[in-house]
Amino acid sequence: MSFRYDAAVAARDVDVALEIERGETLALLGPNGAGKSTVLAVAAGLLRPDSARVELDGRPLTVSGAGRRAVHVPPHDRQIALLSQEPLLFPHLSVLDNVAFGPRSRGASRAAARATARHWLAEVGVEELADRRPAQVSGGQAQRAAVARALAADPGLLLLDEPMAALDVAVTPDLRRTLRRVLADRTVLLVTHDALDALVLADRVAVLEGGRVVDHGETARVLSQPRSRFTAQLAGLNMVTGTWQDGAVRTASGLRLEGMPDGDPQPGDAVVAVFPPRAVSVFREPPGGSPRNVLRVTPTQLEPHAGQVRVRTAELSADITPQAAAELDLAPGARVCFVVKAAEITVYAV
């Protein structure tokens, strides 16, 4: 089913419009407090917005606002399933009966509901746990059972609220692969803080900041050409904003940064320049040689990162080897130069 969402919650300063086509997964990204949970609560029918029109396959679920005939379909009648960070399985029921709960509540016979439950337990790879109680399974197994329970209800829309956030890192990749397979033909709204979740599971991405959508589009485009600092951080990229002047990015502070334009920015256009931390070299003094971008910065933090040392400043990061960090005698507060070749920087209009 397709999903249309246009809702505002004044008390939380959230005003968001979204569309999800049949069989599509849309990932909702954003920092804490951006409004992601509010969007899910409105979609699930747990929160009544001040002004809204929310539809699933053309059926109004929530309608509110001046001049509108109010509609509010209760959560149990929306054909929407919500899967949160915690599995929330019924502790007094077996795993099988937890998964069978959805079909039973929609009128299926006990035998038919259990057959559906066994099918979905097999689909998510935990059919052998059918007779156990939730207290007898691991966190990863319980979350798989929760996925099966959500799918067994055959929802028109599946809401996933950071479903892997509470799991051990060792079990997350396998569950992510399972979700990619079982969600392939489903209509899904996924809230996540993990760029890999978005890349693996989502067809499109919408980025929320301050209760508004600040970027949206195909997942690969949004993560490779971010238009917000949060998205750049999530994608592991440095981002510098400015205007296009004389073949370079000029920032408000007067910095000039040369890069490779993607498209044809015009003089005065608002642009961003992005580049990965691995493209940054660190020096005590500006180096000579071929023309490069030299940025004088002050490190605020040094931390291990994927076998290297990540040198963080207030706005930028560089990845260097532990040997290089030792030779430079780096420490927070020391003045250094970040150096980036123009060929490593992508510039595009926003």
From TrEMBL:
Gene Ontology MF annotations: ATP binding; ATP hydrolysis activity
One of the GO BP terms on file: molybdate ion transport
Pfam family, one: TOBE
SUPFAM superfamilies attached to this UniProt entry: MOP-like (SSF50331), P-loop containing nucleoside triphosphate hydrolases (SSF52540)
Annotated ranges, domain Mop: 288-349
Domain ABC transporter: 3-235
Keywords: ATP-binding, Molybdenum, Nucleotide-binding, Transport
PANTHER family: SPERMIDINE/PUTRESCINE IMPORT ATP-BINDING PROTEIN POTA (PTHR42781), SPERMIDINE_PUTRESCINE IMPORT ATP-BINDING PROTEIN POTA (PTHR42781:SF4)
Protein name, per record: Molybdenum ABC transporter ATP-binding protein
Organismal lineage: Bacteria, Bacillati, Actinomycetota, Actinomycetes, Micrococcales
